[in-house]
Amino acid sequence: MDIIKPRTLSGFMELLPGKQAQFERMLTILRNTYASYGFAALDTPVIEDAQILLAKGGGETEKQIYRFQKGDSDLALRFDLTVPLAKYVALHCNDLAFPFRRYQISKVYRGERAQRGRFREFYQADIDIIGDGKLDILNEAEIPAIIYKVFRGFGLSRFQIRVNNRKILSGFYAMLGLSEKSGDIMRTVDKLDKIGPEKVKTILLEECGLTEAQAEEILKFIAIRGTNAQVIAALEGYLGRSEIFDLGVEELKAVTANLAAFGVPEDNFAVDLTIARGLDYYTGTVYETTLLDHPEIGSVCSGGRYDNLAGYYIEKQLPGVGISIGLTRLFYVLDEQGLLNPELPSAPADALVLPMTAEVGPAIALAEQLRTGGLRVQLYGEQKKFKQKMAYADKLGVPFAVLLGEDEIAEGKCSVKNMRTGEQVKLTPAEAVEYILSALAAGNGPVILEK
Amino acid sequence: MDIIKPRTLSGFMELLPGKQAQFERMLTILRNTYASYGFAALDTPVIEDAQILLAKGGGETEKQIYRFQKGDSDLALRFDLTVPLAKYVALHCNDLAFPFRRYQISKVYRGERAQRGRFREFYQADIDIIGDGKLDILNEAEIPAIIYKVFRGFGLSRFQIRVNNRKILSGFYAMLGLSEKSGDIMRTVDKLDKIGPEKVKTILLEECGLTEAQAEEILKFIAIRGTNAQVIAALEGYLGRSEIFDLGVEELKAVTANLAAFGVPEDNFAVDLTIARGLDYYTGTVYETTLLDHPEIGSVCSGGRYDNLAGYYIEKQLPGVGISIGLTRLFYVLDEQGLLNPELPSAPADALVLPMTAEVGPAIALAEQLRTGGLRVQLYGEQKKFKQKMAYADKLGVPFAVLLGEDEIAEGKCSVKNMRTGEQVKLTPAEAVEYILSALAAGNGPVILEK
User: Fold this and answer.
1) What ipTM score was computed for the predicted complex, to two decimals?
2) Cys-Cys link to A91, which of A161, B4, B6, B408 (CB 3.0-4.6 A)?
3) Which residues of B touch A120 (CB under 8 A)?
């Protein structure tokens, strides 16, 4: 038979079991946290009608999308979870209770040029709250509060959710008589971190055609820094000149006040007037999240408030607010930076039961007892020498081996061996469960260990 | 703006939130049960190199596969989880501990002709145990024992895992001098349930070219019925005439004995000599699982023992045993038959906190306290009339509403309203957690309610 060399496509993450166990922990934290805030799990198809996915159209998306024919169907793989959500809500809006809160943690597909740390298949972990016509400002604080909980759940504390409001930006540009140029200006200002204020000014003058005074006003505005209270105080100096600006400041004040009520420490969120988010889609609060020790990664979690989720599919006005974690990339970066907690057990089992007799009935029964007690238990059924059995336990990385020989069977006990310390004790099955569970609880730590 | 009518492609399951909650429960039971037996979670790409997925080739697969070009890559969507497993094990075999036990619960894609209850995108929930060169017979009992646990976990009891051994079949045909025709014969015998013994005999005589005596022997053989002990006793009457047959009987005896040791009641597994499984792939124990009250559905969980998992990708001999649940179809059928437990809460939250004051800080804090107590809590932040708030609670189907007005805030309490009975009590947040958790525990039942 001809052998075909096995490979996994570049740009597709495929983890070894130990790493996958870490990734699964993050998935579980995400699911549990999202669910604890009353979000419904949602699962939409990977394949959709290409016309529907591309309703908005636009450059990068059209280039990157995986699109193909099957029979006479024009199909494509989803490139995010927002467009399928829009389709879902438009299709099922009569059956949904609004505000509709859903989470979806699923893979999306973008045929980008492959490069280190860029993925063509990656998980997004999204939450959105969709209103029917209206949506209270409270939701715009709850969304980042949930993200705070998720990141803390991962074990992170050195992160910052940066918040701004698009109404403040567009109101401010209106004050300067620059409403029509606000898109170009925001895209330029967005580069501030990368190219610095001097270059930003040059572009504003030469490419956007601003006057010296206008450019200076903008640079002064985006240079506003300080505590959230200080930034808001500075913003209040501009009040009374633009209705939309004033509304934005009011919203920002509500969001920061409510974030504090949700228990998010000031260290973990900051008003940042330079954040605009590229998409025209957003109309109010916008978010980006950075790891303070790794600013080079950019935002690991972004989103914002929008006015019209599903305008391509339905007349109904569906405003919403949502946020998305690029999970595959985040995991890749955390792993690269050595931040995944190496102390967490990576084995698929808490205990490996090793029968030491030819008759395996007692070992089967013992393994079932340990499982009933709440342990993940693997039964090793291979007829191998003791040394080979222990070599398997080592390679698996299982924290405990449970040996069952003639003596143990006669006594109604089993020998529990701590694979790290080598310590071995003879216990009843019930005692063994207690012993192993308490040792595992002691070793429990966060998924991410900050250095 | 032009409106594009939203739709979901036919053959793709997309559930409303309440149904999705039921599906998620089944996923959780599957993950927990598979993990409790020491299987590692695995996640492989949906897209693979088409050459690799199609290494085996063959009619139906080539026709049904979703295959497309991107740039100069020849890509395809996985049509099962076994081929990606073979690739994975071949690619990573030096990093894996053998026997390698993995579970994968993921979507697969087959562009079949769409029809009711047939899906083009569907979940498979697979477990496999892969040995390096050898694999003990014990694993062939553990696999169906785990499936027993899963189905019981779902709430099912009226199901039967039917077990046979391909060595018994091929040994038996060898006794009759029919080894070369055994493939055709097995495919014919496989139709016994559908077409009856008379038609089977006709095909054996006319199409397979058997003699009257040979056909009679086969019909007599596959008519062997009774308890597992009776069937095995009947098989022992054929011993000594074919080595491979004798080995198969020995294996079958070991599997049935061990299944009993795993605690699987005889009602839930049966030796059934008519089961062959179509694929040449299987070489020993084979499984099918039927719902006793719904035989028309066919097998909902099938698999078996194979000798060579990854022969297309690697020289290494990798025998294994595995089984697969076609989860999407199973869920669809259970739902159609009205077997999903309607008593289980379908709401995304256990409690809906309704602030009755303009200031929402106390409600935010209360919701956080209830979450810390372990509840899934949704905070309703919309400024609506009381009646509209309760209408939302009703539509969401949430079991408890928690009202927080001036009085409650002053007393440090909240009003917990049972949405089903209408009963309302004023409790501290800690008492509210206790009260709601105990009510939820009392209402806890299986996902599936047999009639």
Assistant:
1) 0.95
2) B6
3) 47
